[in-house]
Structure formats: C-alpha cells, structure tokens
Amino acid sequence: MTPELALPSRGIHLSIMNQLLQNISPMRSSNELFSWLAQRVAQGLGTQVIQFWSKQKTKTNDTAVDVLASVHGNGIVNHVVDNTSTREVVKRMLSEQSSLSLQAVHDIFPAPQSMLLSRHGIQYCAGYLLHASLPVSSAVVRDAITELVVMTYWQQLPYERVLASLERVLEHSSSLAHNRGLLAVPLRLEKRSRNTQSTNTRVVTVQASPAMQHLGELVPYRTQHDSATRTHNPLSVFLDITDKDARQFYLAIDGQKNVRELANVLYMSFNKVLPILRLLVNQQYVQLFGLDGQSVDTAFLFESRS
After folding, report:
1. CATH number of the domain that 117 lies in?
2. Looking at residue 147, what DSSP letter applies?
3. I need a labelling partner for 256 at 20 to 30 A (CA). Which of 46, 67, 142, 143 fits?
4. Which of these, 150, 160, 194, 190, lies nearest to 41 by C-alpha position?
C-alpha cells in the first residue's frame, strides 16, 4: 500500500503566514523571502524538495530559468533536482502558462530522470506557476519577477489538505511580499494545471448514472493478482497497467479511503474515476467493498453508457 504523509493541522497555512508576518520586516529582497518560505514549507508540509524558479533574460532572447531558493531533504544533492530534465519541465510550464498537477515522477520526467529521483526516494512531483495578475509596464518588467515556478517533490503521496495549504501559502505570501515592496508586482497562482498524460490513453471518460452514485462510498482494495509474488509487490501489477491515471489511482489505494476520497486526493473528477475503476475491476486488479466489509457486485460499472 502507498504510504502517506501525516495529516497536518488544518491551520498550518495560517501558522506559516503568521510567522511570515513576524519575520518579513527585516527582509530586503525577494530571495530572502523565497529562502524563508522554502524552509518553512519544507518543515510544515513535509515536502522533500521545494524550489523557487524564475525566468532569466539571455542575450539571445532564449528562455532560461534559475533557482532563486531551494531546500533539499534526506541528503538529496542539487544535481538530482536541478538538471536539464527538470529545467525543461519548468520552461514548459512557463511556455504553456500552466501549473503542473501532482503526478508520479515517471509520468513527468524522462526515464533516466524519474529513475534518479526514485533512487533518492522521490515518487511524486507537483509544480505551481505564479505570474503577474495584471499587465505590467516595460519599466516595471526590466528587473522585476513577473513569473515564478515553485516545484515540489514528495516521497509519499500528500493529502489534498497539504496541497491546498501550500497553494494558500503561495498566494498569500505573494500578496504580502508585494505590499511590503519585496515584489514589484503581485503574483497570482495559475489554477489551470497541465497533465502529462499521453493522448494515447485507454480510458474513456463517462458520465455517472444514478445507479453509480453510491460508488463514491465504496472502498477499493488491491486484489491478489496472478501470483503470490504480486500480493507483496503491488509495483509488479503497477507496471502492467498502461494508463497513467489508472496507475496513479492504483498506487494511491490504501484500503482505507473510499473512491471519492481517493479522487479528491488525486485531484481527479468523480466522472474521470469511473472509467479508471472499470478498467481496474475488469482486469481484476481491484475489488470494491462496502462499509460493512463485504465485497460488492461491480456489474453496475459495466452498465450501458447511453
């Protein structure tokens, strides 16, 4: 089963913001702010690595990015998270003007990079784009930070509450920093997230029928599939699942969360989860159980879609 982070206090983002209010007065640059934020977010929310990236001007007008501040945990050295592969992801976020939804690292990076991250215990990644909320004059843009990418790397699957707290911290700290003169323009969080899922997917989105509404309350369990070896090694089944969203959903199953809770943690719509469950149940990777602990007849998953 996939381990998860300990659930933080509901007010963790308020705690971080209160600390920032107490410490922001002596700060003289945005780099000081980002360094402070990186430390507090890593401590308060449990991310293994957090980086603040900004776009840099070059003489050839090419897009270049640089790390303004970062915190690495668990002995992770810089080249693991600052290299050509990671920089390309940051550049792509800036080019597409979108954030990066939480995903397994192998769904984001090329195989060599994802393997490197996995060897250092990093399994998940999410990125956040913050950019100027209003048109900015050329005089202001000259040396100002108008776009910022925050990359987070996680050893365990973070709770939805953790990610929501992080988003609030990024938004509120940007506003506060602008008010205190540390940022020339206020930056807002880009809510639109890109997903690296291949377009050659095997999952087709369907609409939930009334007969399926109770599905959200059911608890999925991984089945004993093919051999005793697979029972103790869910990754062997994981490698057989070709759809990326289905793999992510399969890894998140812990035998405790119901379908709706898993959907929330993974930022998936309920309608998107339906075909994923159909796929996993049909291939006998997953079985559904009710609150009474009894297995549920899943024939309703395969009802007519019309």
Report:
1. 3.30.450.40
2. E
3. 46
4. 150
Residue 263 near residue 297, CB atoms below 8 Å: no
142 within some domain: yes
67-125 per-position pLDDT tens digit: 999 999 878 999 999 999 999 999 999 999 999 999 899 889 998 999 999 999 999 99
Let me know the angle formed at the C-alpha of 135 by 130 and 139, rounded to the nearest 5 degrees. 100
Q: Are residues 190 and 268 part of one domain?
A: no
The three-state secondary structure class of 106 is helix
Residues in the chain: 306
Residue type, 284: Q
Residues 45 and 189 in one domain: yes
User: How many other CB atoms sit within 10 Å of the CB of residue 22?
Assistant: 8
Q: Phi-psi bin for 207: left (phi > 0), alpha (psi -120 to 50), beta?
A: beta
Q: Which is more confidently placed, 294 or 64? A: 64
Final residue belonging to a domain, choices 161, 194, 227: 194
Name which residue leads in pLDDT, 112 or 63. 112
**Looking at the domain assignment, is residue 203 inside a domain?**
no
Token pair, residue 160, equals 């939805």
33, pLDDT greater than 60: yes
Q: Say which DSSP state 77 is in.
A: -
List the domain range (segments joined by +) for residue 141.
12-194
pLDDT, tens only, 131-176: 886 555 555 555 678 889 999 999 988 888 888 889 999 989 988 8
Q: Would you state the pLDDT for residue 290?
A: 79
Q: What is the domain count for the chain? A: 2
